[in-house]
């Protein structure tokens, strides 16, 4: 290997890049390169995703028939617990931030790495250890209290593995907090010259908002999980009414984290959508500032709505009203985003590559998920719908329809950058379509089931609910096919995919100005940023603050 | 074997609130469809018209972005505020039982994994609740173990059943028949077995059902029996050996505590005084009552509460006469710890409420109370 770092190969690849510079296992496990850590995270969360998806598949199989005849009711409870815990804390929360965020934030801000590369590696080790602890609690006997860990079920009426799992979740929180800190500091301190806040890609803005929530909300989850352990081990009366505690207090603590966590799970998706939709309409984003500030508004408002999970919990009438009111307010910034994305398409030059299909699917499913949120934010309808399949459908539209589709879209969009290879485009388009159809067939029937009154977490159910459950299970098989395809053709492309070149989508953004895969140090020279993001040829309006700003700058120059 | 499956879309509607909840639900469905049209008709149009390679005008327009942003912020805000008030208004009605004289009060205890239901006249049921048509039914509910949730989809009502608290819900059935009763809060292994039926009967059928199996002791009578067998009457009775507050007329009246607080003796207060007697000590009394936690079930607590309630109607002013000074007298706050040495049998109460405020009006039973700790 000679010193030819500056020599470009014909297809744009650096002779050495972050993937082939060193290839030993040790070089991966001790790496501090944000790009390698991103890949470590990718493998880790896909691993957890597969386990959680298998649990979901078993549940859907059980629900084919009204009787609980496939697995025991206790096993069923363990299945949805492991599904929820792994999907939420070990797939959705880390998904876009730790994989795409880790890979892209330094590149998008023109930096060599994150502010604290070793901390970044540590946070991966923490997540992997926490996941191992959770899996241990499953193999050691399993936990059947649901991912919500409501007391006193989780403190007095369940086995001791609850403590192990709670400790795993407690630990995973530190991974979130460290990642959030790392992002916040990097975005504040390491932007390239000329990259002002209003020139940041919206992906960076949304991850900045996400990181704030991670840093501020996660400690409360850690507290709640720790208090469960304290009450179980030392019998301190925190949640147990017979010791003078309050079981509902746990719900407040839990949702104080877990509602903002919903925004940890969706805000990064917004960022991905903003990047992709501009690229494939060859057009500047519409309402840059509004989208950026909507992310911040959602992050802040997200802290004030936790009580809407507790309208039937015996919380007071007026508390319920305040939380309902605040929950409706969140609809506004979410709506602003959807409208701005739609307007971005206006007068664009739109093409329908795989990432764009995933993103269009995202907008559709997120909109349905958001609008059905109004049903459960409204107090009277929530009384009927909460704890039924309506809620299950609603949050899966947000988390799967939203976040998973955004993650898949982002993974396809930046795959050429990460690996230097192109996946087979028709396969990608087929997978996006299959996922969309399968998803709707799986979860739309659940809205009807919920309205009919089928409670969630039921292992057996009255026979009149069967037809919708059968449809849902049928949809789940299609959805599974949609997930399986990328798991085959993406690895395939590593060896046999076409070489991607530096910028296969002709996208703007600093990350596309590096070779694919990027060299270990990302940029040969520190880039200088002179214009707003998304400098695509088309724009919706001439009255644009950014173009005006740019004109002023040019005049100034 | 596959049997012919039903294809239901709408749950049965069997309570006075069901239709109104459904109207809000349908309004939200309509709003969803409108909003989907508002977003997706233009989107599909744009996707088609501005597809790559289609030769159409793409010159930028001249308008200020913020104006259009304002439009799509303010209009949705107005719409969702409308929905908020609609939902909140209905919620108030869902949470506030109508003040009907003939309201039927039923005590519900959830336990892993069954529903225990006690009628005031003494009928007790398991996982099945019989109620009369057209009469307001109020459920006063608590749990023996974990949090459960009493959910009857046909009535569109649902309320968590929380250990250590009394929660309540009400409904007025408008249709005879049997309707699903579900526990809708995960409560452990048998969660999906914690189901039952609510059977709505015509008033005459209900009466016939009530009289089946002969006359039963009412809940209050059962409570009285317990009151004696558990030894409560030894202290709280008329010739008690230990000085303890009299319970005659207690229910629904204010009780001064040794912390200086005044609380209302509602169901929750009596419940906690039996199971957690050290939590709230009546002013000027020694904290000597033993806890009955783990010794009696929540059903039995309900029976005791019913008994103590029945004392209130027998002697409505007794409690006030015994426990509160007439306003206007010299006020003197006596610390129970100073006044009551252990083992001593102090004289009559000398307590007066701080500030000599007039005695608050007695709270009628089963008013919805904000139950925050």
Features:
heterodimer, A: 557 residues, mainly alpha, Cytochrome C Oxidase, Chain A, 17 helices, 1% strand, globular, disordered N terminus, B: 373 residues, alpha+beta, Cytochrome Bc1 Complex, Chain D, domain 2, 2 domains, 9 helices, 12 strands, 17% strand, disordered C terminus
The main β sheet of chain A shows up as: 2 strands, antiparallel
Query: Spans of chain A of 5+ residues with little confidence (pLDDT < 50)?
Result: 1-10
Q: What is the typical, i.e. mean, pLDDT of chain B?
A: 81
CATH class of the largest domain in chain B, please? Mainly Beta
Radius of gyration of chain B: 28 Å
Describe the structure.
The complex is a heterodimer of chains A (557) and B (373). Chain A has 17 helices and two strands. Chain A has 557 residues and is mainly α. Chain A has a single domain, classed as Cytochrome c oxidase-like, subunit I domain (Cytochrome C Oxidase, Chain A, Up-down Bundle), CATH 1.20.210.10. In chain A, strands 1-2 form a two-stranded antiparallel sheet. The model of chain A is unreliable at 1-10 (pLDDT under 50). By secondary structure, chain B is of the alpha+beta class. Chain B folds into two domains: 10-50 and 67-214, Sandwich (Immunoglobulin-like), CATH 2.60.40; 219-353, Cytochrome Bc1 Complex, Chain D, domain 2, CATH 1.10.760. Helix content of chain B is 33%, strand content 17%. Chain B has nine helices and twelve strands. In chain B, the strands form three sheets. Chain B has a five-stranded mixed β-sheet with strand order 3-2-1-5-8, covered by helices on one side. The longest helix of chain B is centred in the N-terminal third of the chain and has 32 residues, at 18-49. Chain B is elongated and about 100 Å long. Classes of the chains: A mainly alpha (557), B alpha+beta (373). At the A-B interface, helix 3, helix 8, helix 11, helix 12 and helix 13 of A face helix 1, helix 2, strand 7 and strand 9 of B.
